[in-house]
Amino acid sequence: MEIPKISLLTWNLWHTGPCEAHRIDAVSKTIAQLDPDVLYLQEVTRVTMEQLSETLWWKCYHRSRDVRKVQEGQEWYFTLLLLKASTFDLESSFLEKLFPNTIMGRYLLASLKFLQTHCSGEVLAAGDMNWIEDDQPAWSLPEGWCDPWEVLMPEDPGYTYDCHRNQMLPWNGYRSRLDRIWCRLQEWKPMHIELVGLSKLKNVRALDNKRVILPSDHFGIYAMFVKRASPGRRKA
After folding, report:
1. pLDDT of residue 215
2. What is its main location (predicted)?
3. Which of 40, 154, 169, 215 suits a disulfide with 163, CB 3.0-4.6 Å?
C-alpha cells in the first residue's frame, strides 16, 4: 500500500523583474513538472496571474482570491494560496489578513477548511518571510514546530536569495534564507526538500544584454511530506 504524501511549493515571483513573461513561463513549467498539492505564490501581479491562469495546471486548483491593495493609484502585488482539487476534495474558504502597517502589501493567507478538515492540529506555514539572520534577535521555533530545511539539510545553508548563485542579481555579496517553511506536524513528517529555479533561461537576456535571466530573484522551495505509519503498523 502506497504511503500518503503531500507536496508543497513556495515561491516569490519578483513583481518588478526583467523579462517577466519569460520568467513566469519558466515558473509555470516548473509548477507543472513538480505538480505540488499545496502552492504558495508571493509577489503575484494581475499580469502574472493572467498568464498563469492560461495554463492547464491552473484549473486543477482551488485558489484564494487576488487581494490587491491600491494606494495612491498604484496597484500592489499580492499573494496566492492554491490547493490541488484532486488532493483536497473541498471548496476552500480562505482567511485573508492584511497587516495594517505593511509597506510592501504583505498579508497572511490560510485555508480555513483545509485547517479544519485535514490538519488535526497540524499546520504548514510557508513563504517569503524576509528573515534576515543578522537583523533578527536570537530565537527558536515554539515547541512542536520544525523547519524542514534544518531537519533534512542541516549542513546546507539553503539560501533562497543568493547573488553568488543567481547571476541575475547585482553583485553585493548578499545571500540569505529569506524564504522558509515552518510546520507543526503530528501525523506527517518531512521527507524531502530542495531549492528550485536554479537554472538560467536559455536564449533569454535582459535588455542590456549583460544579465542572464532566471525565473525569479528568489529560489523556490519544494518540500514533500509523508504520513507517519500508525503504531500498530510499524515494524518491530
Report:
1. 97
2. nucleus
3. 169
CATH of the domain at 123: 3.60.10.10
pTM of the predicted model as reported, rounded to 2 decimal places? 0.86
- Which domain covers residue 127, as residue numbers? 5-233
pLDDT at 97 over 70: no
Helix, strand, coil percent values for the chain (each to nearest 5) = 20, 30, 50
Which positions ≥6 away from 42 have C-beta within 8 Å?
10, 11, 12, 13, 77, 79, 127, 128
Count of structural domains, the chain = 1
| pLDDT tens-digit series, residues 106-132 | 555 555 455 444 555 678 889 998 877
pLDDT at res. 236 = 38
| d(C-alpha 35, C-alpha 77), whole Å | 24
User: Which residue pairs, CB below 8 angstroms and at least 24 apart, start in 80-83?
Assistant: 80/39, 80/40, 80/41, 80/44, 80/49, 80/109, 81/38, 81/39, 81/40, 81/41, 81/109, 81/110, 81/111, 82/38, 82/39, 82/40, 82/41, 83/37, 83/38, 83/39, 83/111, 83/114
